[in-house]
């Protein structure tokens, strides 16, 4: 159930992180910043598409140069109408499909200087008659502010006037252009959409949350806004200084103007340091106003006006409208993920991070989280190159939130069980096995299970007599050193210390973690233990402190393993017939003159080749026979062959031949010597019902 618990917990954490990220006031800010940084990343990686050539939109800029060149220099802007009229007429003459004026002139000098506006009014009248002029107005605090009445009249009224308002997001950044505005008595297209409709000769329509412009079908957001595809490339929208355009027209260089304006949408607007500046999604691209200037006709660029220090986060409003025109004509506006898609994306990263934190160790989980963050960023950039804006920062915020929450849940719930496992089994198992047990997440509960294990039962021969001859402090020190050797041999071979009973040690292999090779590990531990104990005994003997040998019994079989005890106090232990038989085998070492005896199940399960079958016995309390094996350390192949021949003679009931065979091996083999005595006793008093099994009547 714990894997399912982790998945459900990860889903809950991911869902909560998604809710927090998307439902808080920070959500629009994160979503907007996601888009803004994608523009920067696309530009920095060289993935920004090449601009259309030629650009559908071109700008005539009322820039700082215009203010510093005659005839504009020193002239109040209200008096510029005749100059603007000349520029508009020049653009119309050059073949502009439509001219849009992103400039509101609510006042006029006509009453003070009669005839002052005549060139401007003539240009408006001509443009209106040809359907090639659109003036701008704004809606401010519910009031519509538009051109001077005379200008409105010559432009043929409201049909050639459109709102310049843009859509500003909650963080004050413009990322979208409006398509239509609802007026009290009508619905009208926005400034850029009107220009595009006239350029394409179609009527802008809204259907199924899309802007339809002839063959182009552009997705709109829920507020009816068009997500703009801002570009860093200065050639994306060519810019011409108003002063240069006017000078070009007055010098009769019509070819230059036709090359600049023919067949294009011409927008006239301010490009000044302080006037009509907009914070847009292009704010991190570091554009300078002078970067987009096209080839000059008369006046060279005033380089003193433009410099790197003037790179800024704002762009002129007319450039936003020009970008909208280009996107609408090219059909290249961006698409944002729908709310359900954004939610699914954010949830996916929150869920995966939480699951990673709950399942993986800390370092791999942190590395995986970093990889997910990189994936979110790279995936967002890839989607952006395809025109889709994803809330990747929201996904990363959910990732971080879910990661922190996941670690909190892990510490409070998941790792609490693991800490308990570590505390419980640190005394019994090697650190490596303890960590495996903790990683498995299987905490033994009160009660147990039956599984096949190999049980270790060892005891010191003559310990009681030795302990009576030693001082208590010396005995404790020596016994601790001895038990440390036995314990290390068991736990280093994936075994567990079940209990200490004085000098006796009970161990188990194959629990609490399942170990298919528990028998082999038990035999390996026995070899290691006796090798180290031999060195320990030799060292004590050299100092005049002899140490008795250790008797060991190993048995493999089903046993009850688990936490046994009361609800208040219990121990993880092993119980059952397999344990009893291991104890019997340990005791049988006294009868057979051996130090290690193991059951046939252990011998066969270990796969060890250096073992020999010693006898077949029936111990007290068991109805069936048990094959007992022992190690063949130091014995030759001929010796082992002769021993097995004698054993087979014994099993066949030829006690005399068995006794003779064992006797010949006895001096070099204590086990053979004991078997010789056993066979001789049977030869002297043969049993009537011999079955080849030695029946033991003592434990």
Automatic annotation (TrEMBL):
Keywords: Membrane, Transmembrane, Transmembrane helix. GO terms for biological process: cAMP biosynthetic process; intracellular signal transduction. The keyword Transferase does not apply. The lineage of its organism: Bacteria, Pseudomonadati, Pseudomonadota, Alphaproteobacteria, Minwuiales. The chain crosses the membrane at residues 340-358, 365-386, 392-413. Residues 454-586 form the Guanylate cyclase domain. PROSITE patterns: GUANYLATE_CYCLASE_2 (PS50125). This is Adenylate/guanylate cyclase domain-containing protein. The keyword Membrane applies. GO terms for molecular function: adenylate cyclase activity. It comes from Minwuia thermotolerans. Coiled coil: none annotated. Signal peptide: none annotated.
